[in-house]
User: Fold these one by one.
Assistant:
Number 1:
Amino acid sequence: MSVEITKVKYYPELRRIAAIADEIWHECYGELLGQGQVDYMVEKFQSIDAMTEQIEFQNYNYLSVCENGKLCGYIGIKPEDCDRLFLSKFYLHKEYRGRGIATAMMNYIFDEARKIGKKRVYLTVNKHNDHAIDVYKKIGFAAVDTVVTDIGGGYVMDDFIMEYQIKE
Ligand SMILES: CC(C)(COP(=O)(O)OP(=O)(O)OC[C@H]1O[C@@H](n2cnc3c(N)ncnc32)[C@H](O)[C@@H]1OP(=O)(O)O)[C@@H](O)C(=O)NCCC(=O)NCCS
């Protein structure tokens, strides 16, 4: 397995991330949230316009994850002013799950956090996303709180907040 994780800098890469995000989000959230909410969330958070805005004005970085040169997933991170790094997006295409790529992705994120002096990585995860929660726990995250976020359109996100303490 050869996994390459690289910062997304150019529009064509962002376009590929938007396409794979659309596919992954419909596959993983369709049953959990319903198609209407997934369509709404993809447009609001993962369209090219939305991601461009996040990168330009909200301090987000997107990273593409490739195996043997093929895009198989992506990461979104946002360093915060305090000692925390927000892991906003952590997604792998279904065909590539269960083979060690998620752990490689997370180790990359922890290295990035260390490089910029962050002590904690946190994320939000849907309370019913059992597999992702199991993966995060296995990696060493712990649930520290819950949050219900009104995302407009009559929809909410009902999440756990999970946190990982960076080891030196
Ligand atoms: C979340 C996601 C990136 C994880 O990737 P994955 O390939 O499914 O993860 P893996 O199966 O490689 O599991 C990662 C680690 O957790 C462990 N793990 C997996 N399922 C587990 C379980 N039920 N209990 C305990 N440990 C488990 C694995 O053994 C592995 O540890 P290892 O590398 O030390 O062996 C992927 O499932 C995904 O993209 N899901 C859909 C999108 C999503 O929900 N993203 C998260 C949004 S918050």
Note: The longest helix spans residues 11-33.
Number 2:
Amino acid sequence: MQKRNIFLSGLLAFTMASCATIEDSNMDSQSMNAHGKLPASARTLDMFKPGSEVCYDREVMGETFVVDAHNHFRPFGGAAKSMDEINSYLLDTGVLFVNVFGIGQSLPVDSTCEYYLDCIGTPARPSMKNDFVNASNYLDSDPEGTVMTMSMTFPDLANPENVAAQIAVMDEEFPGMFKWMGEVNLVKQALFGNHHSAAPQSAIADWSEFMTILRDRDIPISIHSDLGSDDQPMKYAYLMDEVLRLYPDNKIVWVHMGLSKELPSINPDTHITKMQDYLDRYPNLMLDITWRVIFDNYFQEPDMRAKYAAFFEYNSDRILPGTDFVASHKKTYEVYKNEVLANSDIFKDLSNTAFRNIALGQNYFDIAGMDYTAPDVCK
Ligand SMILES: [Zn+2]
């Protein structure tokens, strides 16, 4: 409790020096190193192997994250990018570790739609297809230079009775390959036009069989659960309350900190206080701070940015970075690069310790149980 009071008063006192409104173009130049390029080639997997003595120079090697803990390798519908092409995007931006998500709700194969908001009324449903495709592509392309963590995206959280059996199918077809679950949707208001609705609270108790499997295997689960909308900011908070109450020992990642396009202007003090309360009560909870929408609405305006930077600093071992990229065939390298830059921008304001934990991946290695270590930042 005392720690928390120090934090809250620290929030008030916290001021930042460099938080101008940022356009993509000048954000590029701010994130480039002295040579004017994204310093991707300065980063190698060897630097992250235990025992490596190389220190990380933020000025030379850049302040963008090396971990993308939220990347959808499958689009909602239509053609996807090849895994080789995505891997080249990762290497060119210096992202060395990535979670390979499918997509929580995909459009029917006979639909011509590629994005759910373009085809309101078409059902978007969870499916095992995209996880099979990701695993097969991974085996076929055997990407080099990066570490990819396969993730199970198929669970239907409103109808969880088949999830354990589906995990058994993945075990049979791709033994040992899937080490993460998510992004799965508990409530995603953006999909309400596509036959998705908030999962009933009563269904959460029925997750126990698959949550036990995840716990036994030490597999994290990334859950999309909107807090609410601007007119009712905490409308759906009861759903994550129930998840955390029932499964406090699972490694749960709350994506986007509950924020969304439908909640672009919650009071940051209200939001931060709410998130701090969850973090204090549930030590296994982590927050995913990905998505361009969050950067645009919360991490640009200097006062708000300072509050969130202080919040991340205080909880620097509880935060995961990434893009929330969706690998539709229409996207280019420029799109991915700009998402890396936007989603990394606030890390410029963090101390070396917090930068190492979040951007250099120590939190990710810890939660995923990986045999990598973030390098120390050079003094
Ligand atoms: Zn996502």
Note: The CA atoms of residues 220 and 367 lie 7 Å apart.
